[in-house]
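Changelog excerpt: complex records now keep ligands as SMILES alongside chain sequences, and the structure block spans every component. Example after the change:
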Amino acid sequence: MNTSALHAQLSQTLGCPQLPPSVGQHYQGKVRDTYRQGDRLLLVTSDRLSAFDHVLTTIPFKGEVLNRLTNFWFERTRHIVPNHVLDVPDPNVTVARACQPFAVEIVVRGYLTGSLWRDYQKGTHTAYGLPFPEGLRKDEAFPAPIFTPSTKAPKGQHDEPISEKEILARGLASARDWARITEAARALFLEGQKWARTRGLILVDTKYEFGKVGDDLYVIDEIHTPDSSRYWMADEYEARFSRGEDQRMLDKENLRQWLIRERGFQGHGPLPEIPEDVRVSTAQTYLRAYEQITGTPLVLEPGDVQARIEKNLRARGYL
Ligand SMILES: Nc1ncnc2c1ncn2[C@@H]1O[C@H](COP(=O)(O)OP(=O)(O)O)[C@@H](O)[C@H]1O
Ligand SMILES: [Mg+2]
């Protein structure tokens, strides 16, 4: 999609959806609005962009790209781990099995980078209770994926790193469930990495959430999206790594870096305003990510996202 079409969409993005109360009990997360209808949950993925745990702006078509991508991955992995998806009545909406979520996020990492690299340099990487060899280099691959879980903090609070021992001690998951969760997360991650490679990408790290219905375990929320994951360009990895250069990324770390570089913003102080051209170029990042990851071009229909969602939900009997 060209830049002018993306500019035109800036005024029609989905910030906070306004749906009639009959759509169900409402909860607003940073990016998704959920509506509970008995044992199912309508997840509306908005165009809101969050960075450093703050919602900063909206990005044209971001919600659609994320919802489509996550469903692409759920389709590809459902033979490995059951997921929460029941129906996709609109490009921005997933109807899911309402699960009892675990209050931990499972971060799986294939490489030493990002916040973990920053922690490693400071010596504060011990919170996960994992052994780390000395002398690792930035962006170095781990021999096998590692888990660096964090608590799922209530709204407005920051997630904290947590060790497996602490998860079990606090009863955030039983030993049996934790074993099932890590096994499922490992299998999903390896499958994600395998597919990413065929698309010229490295799935560097990602975050999963799991929930239960009765004793059945499901992967919930979103998987392998640019919001929950970091991807690098595979063909440049070795050369950049050996020269000690930053990797070429495919994710919102780009906007995070713009915030740090241009606004000195790292989550504290007044929220910076995001200029329109930065919103448009961020939209392009998301669209490129979709096409690079899936290998399929994305046909988008400009227009009022909110109105379309309402129409589709009515047509499918969710309203
Ligand atoms: N199938 C599900 N059952 C129960 N809760 C879910 C399910 N899928 C997603 N959720 C929850 O819905 C919310 C989605 O909104 P999101 O914007 O991602 O929130 P957050 O700000 O916590 O990241 C999250 O709290 C997530 O844990
Ligand atoms: Mg989330």
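The pocket of magnesium ion (ligand 2) is lined by residues 29, 31, 221 (CB under 6 Å). Residues 239 and 245 are 8 Å apart (CA to CA).
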